[in-house]
């Protein structure tokens, strides 16, 4: 099946720094990518929908200036956590959709962010 | 709004069948999915069913859909230790602009 790669898998940073997480579709083009956040022992919370060539659509309660999303090409979307704080520590997962609006979703392996 | 609910825990004996249940509220659901998440990893798509189907079988996995009751189940036959994971039910519905909505996940543990 299709492969979605996230990088980095683990990142530890100091409070106040910014961290960029990449999501790449390796063998297909993804016009739409999604970013999720998962708190320990909880389900996935959709943060935003990333569309290639346009601004991301953020879910209610997600600060767009805090979580910058850029979908510069059909194979790459990035999530930048700006001025990270300990409460931003979480597991961030991206997914990419193949084809139409109801096409299959493929997920990355996730990126664990720890802010000290 | 859309909501997907699952029980949080399930414990079964190795070799028995596991049945994980899910209910959803959006009647416009198109695709319904089951994902598996192992510790520290992303999500792996196990199987999916289109809303006009009642049942889908794929090796040890059987998905049953009761559209009238908005109930979805995943049955894992001959459960093995490698099946220990969190299983997420998810739906895509037109009313949610084709976003995928996840349940809370069911943690499946296998006892010898």
Tell me what you see in this structure.
By secondary structure, chain A is an all-beta fold. The mean pLDDT of chain A is 87. Chain A is 0% helix and 53% strand. In chain A, strands 2, 4, 5, 6, 9, 10 and 11 form a seven-stranded mixed sheet that branches. Chain A has a four-stranded antiparallel sheet with strand order 1-3-8-7, with no helix packed on it. By secondary structure, chain B is mostly beta strands. Chain B has strands at 4-6, 9-13, 18-24, 29-37, 43-50, 55-58, 61-66, 71-76, 85-93, 100-102, 106-111. In chain B, the strands form two sheets. In chain B, strands 2, 4, 5, 9, 10 and 11 form a six-stranded mixed sheet that branches. A five-stranded antiparallel sheet of chain B has the order 1-3-8-7-6, with no helix packed on it. The chains are: A mainly beta (116), B mainly beta (112).
What key phrases describe this protein's structure?
heterodimer; A: 116 residues; mainly beta; 7-stranded mixed sheet; 4-stranded antiparallel sheet; B: 112 residues; 6-stranded mixed sheet; 5-stranded antiparallel sheet; globular
